[in-house]
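ugh ok fine here u go
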Amino acid sequence: MFNLPKIGITMGDPAGNGPEITVQALLHKDIYERCRPIVVGDAMIFEKAAAILGHPEIKIHRISQVSEALFEYGTIDVFHMDLIDPDKFEYGKVSEMCGMAAFLCVKKVIELAMKGEIDATCTNALNKEAMNKALAPKGLHFDGHTEIYAKYTNTKKYTMMLAHHDLRVVHVSTHCSLREACDRVKKDRVLEVIRIADKACREMGILKPRVAVAGLNPHSGENGLFGREEIDEIIPAIKAAQAEDINVDGPIPPDSLFPKALGGWYDIVVAMYHDQGHIPLKTVGFVYDRELKKWKEVEGVNVTLGLPIIRTSVDHGTGFDQAGKGTSNELSLVNALDYAIKLAQNKCNL
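structure:
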């Protein structure tokens, strides 16, 4: 057991479904056979989650330092942060109290990882509105988890990777307007993301990664007929990467690229903007059952690449509409834990 990686899991926004899916994920016994999980959050919230899910036998073990953790199946070690006033707490509502709690949990898990007390971090969803309302008086603003990690690890070059099994996508830009995203397609940034993508695959144990780069414009610009970004920025970046011995192909029109990637032609795809990468991943990862009128599968992992520490995350939001009902699906968190474990193991072997 002592050789298993320690994985820090954040609570997410406590008004959302993060605590419930965390308890559900940690009911999978094999998780404890592959890692040593520690939850960072308010223990009271996890006691409520266990009760909502009908699992009173689950023990919530409050700890104030990692060395106190038991790492026993049936017991959830919670690095307790006294963040929630039970008299003010309400599920499914945007709350500054809950936004600040989610932020402080992320900050704490980063601190533990930077100190080497845990081997990887795994985050549940936070609500950006709630967090930024809470942080505004302090003069802070973050677009999301990725930017928090970048600030508190002092990282300048990073990108988001989404993964559903062996379909992986990294992004040249993420949280910005579509108009601004087009302006961010520059040779240096595209080359930077190609390099990060290649390195990430190697860190996952893929010895000779096959990288594909999506075009920005319809038909990848059709030789300048529908835009010049491919000619002026993307192709020069690809040629520069090829000169560095990176096995990279493109630019490929995304409507044909993603079917090829699903078919195993490539190990990772470089997308030019947020929705270009997110839509294909969520189309295959989020499966809705029309007859039962509920989500059958909610799978996918968000990984921040380029950091000095490992960060994976669920690939969905806070689920305010399901919070407190015990109906949320934990598959995305289980997938995120799988990736965190794999990355931590590979990092130890490098």
